[in-house]
Amino acid sequence: MIATLLGGFAASPWMRTVLRYGAIMLAALLFLLSLRRSGERAGRLAERLETTEKANDVQRQMLEAAARRLAIATSLLSGCARGGSDLLSGAVCPPVVEHDQEVQARAAEEIVLLPDRSAIAAMLADYSVMRDQARACRGR
User: Fold this and answer.
1) What's the rounded Cα separation, in Å, for the pair 47 and 27?
2) CA dist., res. 6 & res. 22, Å (int)
3) Do 134 and 93 contact (CB within 8 A), yes or no?
4) Per residue in 42-96, pLDDT tens?
5) Which stretch of 5-9, 44-48, 96-100 has the lowest confidence by average pLDDT?
6) Sequence-ordered list of residues with C-beta below 8 angstroms from that of 10, at least 6 positions apart, any chain
7) Which of 1, 18, 26, 138 is the most exposed place for a label (fewest CB within 10 A)?
8) What is this structure's pTM?
9) Which residue stretches of 1-140 are H helix?
């Protein structure tokens, strides 16, 4: 009974037309859903790129601030000197604690999470200057 009913549908020209248009509409609907999904993926990628760019901007600002502080500290220290730099030959240099790559990577990830103009970030930039000065003292 079902076979005769399906055979009758397939034999009818208007039913074949309805089935053809139905198949076309189904294909168009699937195409539109596929476009939507790829658009969502592109949106997520754009959002991830924007987040990475913000993190890079923060790191660049921190590096620029550290460079400015180093230049200011150097000029202030050189203005206080009464003689040549050879006077430091008897000075004791402070030790510099070396951190492994894993700790440095974790610290960099945590710094990115700090709010803009964070006092901690400014203090870390000062700490970086002091570490560079201690290394320079040790490497005479």
Assistant:
1) 31
2) 16
3) yes
4) 777 778 888 888 888 888 888 888 887 777 777 766 665 555 555 555 567 888 8
5) 5-9
6) 16
7) 1
8) 0.33
9) 2-11, 13-80, 101-113, 119-138
Chain position carrying tokens 């990475």 = 52
Q: Which residue has the tokens 């430091």?
A: 88
Report residue 131 CA to chain centroid gap.
26
Tell me which residue has tokens 């002091």.
130
Axis-axis angle for helices 2-11, 13-80 (nearest 10): 80
Contacts of 55 by beta carbon, 8 Å cutoff, 6+ apart: 112
Task: Specify whether the CB–CB gap between 131 and 98 falls below 8 A.
Answer: no
Burial class (CB in 10 A: 0-12, 13-18, 19+), 7: exposed
Residue type, 126: D
Check if the beta carbon of residue 91 is closer than 8 Å to that of residue 77: no
Residue-range domain boundaries for the chain: 2-78+95-138
